[in-house]
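In the current project phase, the collection of sequences with tokenised folds has grown. One resulting record follows, to show the layout:
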Amino acid sequence: MADKGYDADHFVTKIEATGAVAVIPSRSNRLAPREFDRHLYRARNLIERFFARLKHFRRIATRYDKLAKSFLSFIHLACAFVWLA
């Protein structure tokens, strides 16, 4: 899943070469628009909004933790907080 900025034939061929389905809407100036799954593309918006909410935690956005284990622990804590709120 990607936004319209990644609507290029070379991106789509690389994605399809791996066996995945490209869920990228076509740009408005494309001569032959490609089909894409609109319902699956809507899930992308939910994911991006979730990451935006996680970045409200300054500790995650700036990555103060030196150890990956500490960083991951705080991400789990922030996810639980977002889920409860």
In short: Helices lie at 9-17, 38-54, 58-62, 68-84. Residues 60 and 75 are 7 Å apart (CA to CA). Residues 55-85 form one domain. The longest helix spans residues 38-54.
